[in-house]
Amino acid sequence: MPEVLETTVDKFVFRVATDRYYSSEGVWVAPLPQGEGEGAGVRVRIGLSDFLQQRSGDVAFAEIKPEGTVVATGDEVAVIETIKVNISLTAPVSGKVVEVNPAMATAPEAINKDPYGEGWLAVIEPGDWETDRARLLDAQAYFVLMKGQAEEESKKP
Amino acid sequence: MTPPPRQVVIVPCSGIGKTYGTVSREAAYEIVENLRSAKTQLVALSLLVLGDEDARAAVADCPAVTLDGCKLACATKMVKESGGTVAQDFAVLDVYRRYRRFKPQGIAELNEGGQKLAHALAEEVATVVDNLTAEHAQGVEKNPSISTNSAVSAVNGAQGGDDA
Is the pTM of this model over 0.95? Predict the structure, then answer.
């Protein structure tokens, strides 16, 4: 379990893992330890933030773009169907999908149970990680953004 | 003389304003009113919450099948807390994963997908009810001292199979 920033809004507790980056949409991006050997590039794992999964509801199905798919930032990388909504998630980085979490086909509820761990969606090999990283939010910045979004949500009837 | 089959208690979600809760209740009505009226009895979750004696007696004496609308699983928890045995719990979301073509929508009134999903759930529960009552019938043949469940027919606040 990574270290987290935590806030309570209304009766809900939301956590932000501090060891990764975030898109404003609530998709986290965690660089994986780099492999050894020449040509071993950066790979990042992506998933839903705790706030995004709680706001979206229990996941029924998760369809991730298959391995080999090349996505640009902002392209749809996954569709998550929950009991409330269908969410089209956009890629937080540009690159190639190199791995899809096999659990998503059989037990997508992992997104709700363990959003920062077992509930990861895919691994992407970014084309230009440094540029993408500069566009993402660090945990503290996302925490502030998320808290504001959660407070707005709590005011809705 | 063959004793009447053991009855099974059906306890659906009592949540308000949620599509999946509505699916669970529609399925429960279909089971107790149409599919297995002679073998099942509906027990209102709210009566268990209130500690109603007849409702508690019903779940204490009969195996229960719970139909939960969300992961809070209130129906399953309340049957257990009331001293009952959950023979099988169904989560509507899990059922939907098996019948993706039946996407439920609506709350007061389910769409066609929701009605079909409720029917699919009811059919699955009916199979469980058949298995449970068959097991009981076999037990009665082996041990005639096993009694049938008189408490079930006395449950207030619920309707169900009394046509055995």
Answer: no
